[in-house]
Amino acid sequence: MEDKRNIQIIEWEHLDKKKFYVFGVAMTMMIRVSVYPFTLIRTRLQVQKGKSLYHGTFDAFIKILRADGVTGLYRGFLVNTFTLISGQCYVTTYELTRKFVADYSQSNTVKSLVAGGSASLVAQSITVPIDVVSQHLMMQRKGEKMGRFQVQGNPEGQGVVAFGQTKDIIRQILRADGLRGFYRGYVASLLTYIPNSAVWWPFYHFYAGLPWWRSG
């Protein structure tokens, strides 16, 4: 026997909004806690001059751990968690835009193309400023200066001081570059993520609509 099936498309009105937002944020936070140290290490390896500080991922991990402890691997983490908002805004914008476009076109390709691009525009507008601040915080370390800005006072970044460092970095960015300083790389991000999102979703719905066969 052969069973012809299509993958069901879950639309916005089908979602349990409370569960979606609560579990979505919780799951993303768990993943973020696991991978953030490697995000910090990657950022430092990309910024350092040659191999002046670290000789590789493992070497950086050990040196940061010895110098600053576990908290050193999570510099800028509190600020970075605000990007969780952009993830929820991405999905919300995508679904609401699909619903709006449905009044003008029933084509899944058109709805997904417009909604995917719009969702990325909103998400990147929120994410880029947060990333700029958190990446500057990642560069804070004992000893040699790594980034453009150096926080004043206590370099440990523990407790309330972490938000004190955030305020300090924000002030320095504003003083040096104005509001535009928070959107360094914004256009590049849009040119990367908007086409990717706008193309990905139509293909998702295209493949979901194909007949899938199984033997029984």
From TrEMBL:
<keyword id="KW-0812">Transmembrane</keyword>
<dbReference type="InterPro" id="IPR018108">
    <property type="entry name" value="MCP_transmembrane"/>
</dbReference>
<keyword id="KW-0472">Membrane</keyword>
<dbReference type="InterPro" id="IPR042164">
    <property type="entry name" value="SLC25A44"/>
</dbReference>
<dbReference type="GO" id="GO:0005739">
    <property type="term" value="C:mitochondrion"/>
</dbReference>
<dbReference type="GO" id="GO:0009083">
    <property type="term" value="P:branched-chain amino acid catabolic process"/>
</dbReference>
<dbReference type="Pfam" id="PF00153">
    <property type="entry name" value="Mito_carr"/>
</dbReference>
<dbReference type="InterPro" id="IPR023395">
    <property type="entry name" value="MCP_dom_sf"/>
</dbReference>
<feature type="repeat" description="Solcar">
    <location>
        <begin position="18"/>
        <end position="100"/>
    </location>
</feature>
<feature type="transmembrane region" description="Helical">
    <location>
        <begin position="20"/>
        <end position="41"/>
    </location>
</feature>
<keyword id="KW-1133">Transmembrane helix</keyword>
<feature type="transmembrane region" description="Helical">
    <location>
        <begin position="181"/>
        <end position="203"/>
    </location>
</feature>
<keyword id="KW-0813">Transport</keyword>
<dbReference type="GO" id="GO:0015658">
    <property type="term" value="F:branched-chain amino acid transmembrane transporter activity"/>
</dbReference>
<dbReference type="GO" id="GO:0016020">
    <property type="term" value="C:membrane"/>
</dbReference>
<protein>
    <submittedName>
        <fullName>Solute carrier family 25 member 44 isoform X3</fullName>
    </submittedName>
</protein>
<comment type="similarity">
    <text>Belongs to the mitochondrial carrier (TC 2.A.29) family.</text>
</comment>
<feature type="repeat" description="Solcar">
    <location>
        <begin position="107"/>
        <end position="210"/>
    </location>
</feature>
